[in-house]
Design a protein that fits this description.
The structure is a single chain. This protein is an all-alpha fold and 271 residues long. It has one domain (3-267). It contains 12 helices and no strands. It has helices at residues 3-16, 23-33, 42-63, 65-77, 85-113, 117-136, 149-158, 169-179, 184-207, 210-218, 220-244, 251-267. Helix 4 (65-77) crosses helix 5 (85-113) and helix 5 packs across helix 9 (184-207). The two termini are 31 Å apart. The relative contact order is 0.19.
């Protein structure tokens, strides 16, 4: 893969992983329809995507480092009686549905849906409308400290949709959080917290495959650069998205999703 393509795909991952626009859909669209990084075989493409996700996982870990340390410390010493400690165990509960679905349906998603551009376009459009409506017609009062175990499990279950490119992990979880009454910033923050164990689990699962190490060994420079770009861009994106959501809604993301969905359908000759 050429240098420019690595930078572009790393930049896309860093932005699209946190904005509610679906990083997996963008990587597929830009690679397959726009030719950015084209020519990779399916396994290399998937492994490179996971490497980019590792970069954004690092961004989450660094940006929310103090939060995670407090959660772990208080989670084990004070348990669910503490506002921060309970979040640790709620994240564990919220991670289970996506983990189970990922193990059961990984091959189905990879073989039947990952490169179905009609499904991707529909997912982009549908989720764009859902997140806008969920935000517009929901309360804006509940903080992350008021979240319940039931809320965490429901938000966790919504992550299952994110296995389909176009829905977006952040999009589905933020929308669900808003429906449950979380304010915009805390809905986004809990979404980012919840993504960490899910992405980490997917990476570990992939690393158990012998073929993955062969791919990494043969493209180590490509992977390091991609991880670095997605990490830096991801850090900046988290910071500015949380600031943006303090005074803005999700209308711009709905419009962008609808436009991109239409472009995809036009490019494949459906629209």
């Amino acid at each position: 893969m050429d240098f420019i393509s690595i930078i572009i795909l790393g930049f896309i991952q860093g932005i699209a992983e946190f904005l509610p626009i679906s990083s997996s859909a963008h990587l597929i669209i830009f690679r397959d329809l726009f030719g950015i990084g084209a020519g990779m075989d399916a396994h290399l493409a998937l492994t490179f995507d996971l490497a980019l996700h590792f970069g954004t996982l690092l961004a989450i870990g660094i940006y929310f480092f103090k939060d995670f340390i407090n959660m772990i410390s208080k989670g084990f010493t004070k348990g669910v009686k503490d506002d921060e400690g309970k979040i640790l165990w709620y994240l564990v509960a919220g991670t289970v549905p996506a983990a189970i679905a990922g193990v059961l349906f990984e091959d189905v998603i990879e073989n039947a849906i990952r490169n179905n551009y009609v499904i991707i376009a529909l997912a982009l459009a549908i989720m764009g409308i859902i997140i806008y409506c969920a935000d517009k017609y929901s309360d804006n009062k509940k903080t992350i400290k008021k979240i319940t175990i039931k809320d965490a499990i429901i938000i966790g279950c919504s992550q299952v949709l994110a296995l389909i490119p176009g829905f977006s992990r952040s999009g589905t979880t933020i929308a669900t959080g808003r429906v449950l009454g979380l304010n915009r910033e805390d809905a986004a923050k809990f979404s980012f917290y919840l993504s960490a164990p899910v992405v980490a689990g997917a990476l570990v699962l992939q690393l158990f495959k012998k073929a993955t190490w062969t791919v990494i060994a043969g493209h180590i420079g490509t992977f390091i650069l991609g991880i670095l770009i997605s990490f830096i861009v991801g850090l900046l994106c988290i910071k500015y998205l949380l600031k943006y959501l303090h005074n803005h809604n999700f209308k711009i993301f709905m419009i962008y999703r609808l436009i991109l969905a239409l472009i995809v359908l036009i490019m494949i000759g459906v629209a």
